Amino acid sequence: MTALFLDRDGVINQRIVDGYVTRPDDFLFIDGVLEAMAIFARHFDRIFVVTNQQGIGKGLMTEADLQAVHSYMLQQVQDAGGRIDRIYHCPTLKSEHSFMRKPSIGMALRARRDYSDVVLHRSVMVGDMESDMLFGRRARMQTVLVDDQTNLARRNPHLVDLSFPNLISYAQYLEKVTSE
Ligand SMILES: [Mg+2]
Fold first, then answer.
1. I need a labelling partner for 14 at 20 to 30 A (CA). Which of 52, 77, 124, 126 fits?
2. Cα angle, residue 141 at apex, residues 37 and 153 outer, rounded to 5°
3. 31 a catalytic residue
4. Based on the structure, what is the number of domains in the chain?
């Protein structure tokens, strides 16, 4: 089965530079994302969010804060006709070098364990950072960069299979190539 793995900050919602989304009011969907999620729901058997959230490890937010943010996100996605099967997050600090933290692939292996029909080499990882591309590459997924800020794809062509300015552009590309 084909799964879509989505990074969260900078892909689904606007990233807070040097900060964390600690409450639903700070969670701002990037333009077109809700529309994109409805398209993905038709194209992928499973849809997962994989997100590093070391703001928890730093004590800047709690697991309950994160759950409140994710409840809001899930509700909005669902209301727009989209679907997220499961959200995986890693609360630990970067310095702890957890296998669950991207770019290590613990969250991908967890998803495959939880959903035995998921075939990673037929799946796609979408993210906005090099760590997302590494995560996807190491898990043998197709990698899709959504990023209009840096030249990450140009600097790391071996890590990036496809590149789009944002999530809706990727969703529209999927619609186009599958209708041809
Ligand atoms: Mg990100």
1. 124
2. 80
3. no
4. 1
pLDDT tens, position by position, 41-98: 999 999 999 999 999 999 999 999 999 999 999 999 999 999 999 999 999 999 999 9
Q: What is the CATH number of the domain that holds 42?
A: 3.40.50.1000
Burial of residue 179 (CB within 10 Å: 0-12, 13-18, 19+) is exposed
Its pTM stands at 0.96
Structural domain including 61 reads: 3-179
pLDDT digits (tens, 9 = 90+) for 25-57: 999 999 999 999 999 999 999 999 999 999 999
Distance (Å) from CA 8 to ligand 1 centroid: 6
Structural contact between residues 143 and 133, judged by C-beta atoms closer than 8 angstroms? yes
For residue 47, list its beta bridge partners.
Answer: 4
Instruction: Determine the distance separating the centroid of ligand 1 and the alpha carbon of 180, expressed in angstroms.
Output: 31
65 a catalytic residue: no
